[in-house]
Request: fold
Amino acid sequence: MSAQSVATAVTAAPAAPVRAPRASRPPRPRLTVVPPLHARAPKAPFVILVAALLTAGLGGLLFLHTALAEDSFRLHDLKVRSTDLSDREQALEQAVAVAASPQRLAARATALGMVRSENPAFIRTSDGRILGVPKAAELPPAAPKPVLPAAAKPVKSPTGTPGKARATVAGNKGVHAGPPGTAR
Reply:
């Protein structure tokens, strides 16, 4: 072998690992199987916990059901009240519409002594100008009052109140001719 091949063989061969001298270790403990413990957890706390959870759950459901039932009754009462108020509102609106009708307004104005103007005048609010020629309304001639026959005599009421006096027509005893609401 040549020198070159020896050098190649030396470089190609791996070097053996160098180990440090062993330090003294303590001996390893031996592992053994431990017998199982026969101590069990007490069942009473678990049973009490489950019973408490069930009781709290049932109590919560009962409370929730009661609250929902109460709200249901309240909702029913409010719906009934709303319906009643709606009916009352419609009745009042109808009463206002009847009272505001032109015939009713004219009758009430006449009862208050107002007379109808045949020549109205208007005021324009934008500039305050009067449109038309205002003319005072005239009171129509009063209707004649009915006259009682000569044979009618006023009779005092049993209470003696002059406002409740009655008159009877001769020959027609019992026929009332006094103010309204004073029938025998």
Notes: The chain has a mean pLDDT of 77.
